Amino acid sequence: MNLTLAVEVDPYIVSVMLLSLKVAAASLGIAAVIGIPLGVALGLTRFSGRLVFLILVNSAIGLPPVVAGLVTFLLLRKEGPLGDLQLLYTPAAMVIAQIPLVVPFIAGITMAGVAGVPTELRLQARALGASRLREAVTVLRESKGTTLAAIVAGFGASVSEVGAILITGGNLLVGGENYTRTMTTAIVLETRLGNYGRAMTFGGILLVVIIVVNVFLTRAQVGRPVR
Amino acid sequence: MRSIAKLSLTAAIFLTSCSSPSSPGESVSTFVVASTTSTQDSGLLDELVPSFEQDHPDLRAKVVAVGSGEAIDLGRQGDADVLLVHSPKQEEQFMTEGFGEFRKRVMKNNFVIIGPSTDRARVAGASDAAAAVQKIAAAQDTFLSRGDESGTHQRELDLWEKAGVDHSGDWYVESGQGMAETLSISDQRSAYTLTDTATFKVMEGRISLKVLFEGDPALVNPYSVIPVKEARNREAALAFASWMTGSRGQQVIRKFGVKQYGSSLFEPDAASE
């Protein structure tokens, strides 16, 4: 039985771990840039389609990740509308697949956090002559603990994703080097091949990452400064 | 409260009746067949297993479709009762190590090298299979490897070895997945790859790659059935093996694919031994 755990630093294992982190970080980065302003806007403004938007955002949070992967695949394959970009089976495709999953999540929580800021504070800011934008920034700063927690939670979810990134990434090695294998897709492969030691190594690293993520998450929730 | 009790009772009855055999007094024993992705992806197992179970109503086959290498590993660990694989070198080693009851030829088809119709590497004119892969390496054109210790992967590695070619380079991509997924990826990347004819015929309509090289005796693809000696269900394993090599199994194999693809996807080959 193949149970020898990898104790030495295997460059393949390191590259797989790094790719997991990079893909999750990229997805979160893009999702934050889109989701936070969206959440603030939904939380602060009153516009006619707001209820519909709210329903959409809440439903989108429940979107099964593998469905996001499938849709991304259909868009990026060579017969698809974005086929000419040749993004399928690249790390970029994996990031793209995760964006529709993380954006609603970040937007939804930011929105809730923003709505939770006492109205007196907002009125005060307005009374002191703050523009809409200034007001938004103030409110965001007040609820930043919640927003930060959302980002950290999103990272945890992103790094655990399997189906969508397997479909869009292809779990490939190129020239013997890791190209689209993340810790999760590598676990699927190594388990299938019977390399249980390797699979458990990836599983262990993944658990450590999740624990670290949750340490930051708890600190952010409890209100301690996140270093 | 009472309605919850009723609901739970109904649920409990429903669930237990789902897991017990359909007709009382008939005990069904299950066994595990470890087979390859080609037999699964081509749809052969979807034909074979029901036919086998029809002839043996007391047996239920659980098929695990992985690559030949993994299937053989499952056999070694006793997690599979019988193997249906296509990796001669690995099979021989399995038998030498004493894990297999016997090893019988069941069927065969061929491997072919497929690729984009533009065929930049000019594989189509190669003198033999080894020369064909050598041309791909020379042209540094993308080649998709199974990379999963399967029978197909093993054969591909044999070809590189025969050609004396080092396949390292960014043009060499490994999917680590089954034949169907690898064909899909090859198609998307307009790459060359080695495939068995059965999976290819089934996927042909969905991909744009074409057969560029075939016919070399080095590309014959024989499948064998091996009952595992220390199988949990030895009886079932032996029954499966003799059915596969017997007239009924061979007939099912011969008929498979004829209606849809015009010819058998696998050629029954038990009589050759």
Structure characterization notes:
The complex is a heterodimer of chains A (227) and B (273). With 227 residues, chain A is mainly α. Chain A contains 10 helices and 2 strands; from the N terminus they run ααααααααββαα. Chain A has helices at 11-44, 50-61, 65-76, 91-115, 119-127, 132-142, 144-160, 163-169, 183-193, 196-222, and strands spanning 173-174, 177-178. A two-stranded antiparallel ribbon of chain A has the order 1-2. In chain A, a hairpin with a 2-residue loop joins strand 1 (173-174) and strand 2. In chain A, helix 3 packs parallel to helix 8 (163-169). The longest helix of chain A is centred in the N-terminal third of the chain and has 34 residues, at 11-44. The radius of gyration of chain A is 20 Å and the shape is globular. The termini of chain A are far apart. Chain B is an alpha/beta fold and 273 residues long. In chain B, strands 1, 2, 3, 4, 5, 6, 7, 8, 9 and 10 form a 10-stranded mixed beta sheet that branches. The N and C termini of chain B lie far apart (69 Å). Chain B is globular. The longest helix of chain B is centred in the N-terminal third of the chain and has 18 residues, at 2-19. Chain B has helices at 2-19, 37-41, 44-55, 68-77, 88-96, 129-139, 151-163, 179-188, 197-203, 234-245, 247-255, 258-261; strands spanning 29-35, 59-65, 82-85, 104-115, 143-145, 172-174, 192-196, 210-213, 220-227, 267-268. In chain B, helix 7 (151-163) links the parallel strand 5 (143-145) and strand 6 (172-174). Chain B contains 12 helices and 10 strands. The mean pLDDT of chain B is 91. Classes of the chains: A mainly alpha (227), B alpha/beta (273). The interface between A and B is medium-sized, with 18 and 24 residues.
